[in-house]
Design goal:
By secondary structure, this protein is α+β, with helices and mostly antiparallel strands. Among the domains are: about 35 residues, no CATH class; about 70 residues, no CATH class. The chain is built from six helices and eight strands, in the order βββββαββαααααβ.
Length: about 170
């Protein structure tokens, strides 16, 4: 705890690396395991590290494989499980967010309407945004909707299909 000259009590903040468990060197038994990812002690029968979530797979070694390698298992000895670590490749689930119930519209038509008739909001009516279309219509006498409509028409024509669909909640033909 640090008290500054202004009388404010503050706690020091540590921005260092994340602390990882170190595997035990000396007193560890053969039956104890550690997570290969973070080094935390884990249960011998665990399939996942409870600290970092690393997936662990336990496979029993086959007696046939041991006899092929020249190892013979005595009848009284227990067989040690073989640990295989499988790291799953990060799956990239692509979700576009385009709803199939959205109306089908044409991006080029919306852009051309925005450029030529954007002053009275026809492009907004076309895209189904009736409230914005009425707003453009109410203020068309100022000339501001014409400028904004022209810019929006260019944006519609220059944007890629996915961005156009997500921004305007429409599907493209």
């Amino acid at each position: 705890m640090i008290i500054s000259i202004y009388g404010v009590i503050s706690m020091p903040i540590y921005f260092g690396p994340k602390i990882k468990y170190k595997p035990l060197k000396g007193g560890r038994k053969m039956s104890e395991r550690v997570c290969p990812q973070c080094g935390a002690p884990i249960d011998p029968t665990a399939t996942e590290c409870k600290f970092c979530g690393e997936k662990l797979t336990i496979q029993q070694t086959m007696p046939q494989m041991q006899s092929q390698q020249g190892y013979v298992q005595q009848p009284g000895q227990s067989q040690q499980p073989q640990i295989i670590i499988q790291q799953a490749a990060p799956q990239q689930n692509y979700y576009s967010g385009i709803n199939p119930t959205w109306p089908i519209k044409n991006k080029i038509v919306a852009g051309v309407l925005g450029i030529f008739l954007g002053g009275i909001g026809i492009h907004k009516f076309y895209l189904g945004k009736v409230g914005m279309g009425i707003l453009y219509l109410l203020f068309c006498w100022t000339g501001i909707p014409a400028i904004v409509g022209f810019i929006e028409g260019i944006i519609y024509l220059c944007s890629n299909d996915e961005n156009f669909q997500l921004k305007n909640h429409v599907r493209i033909k």
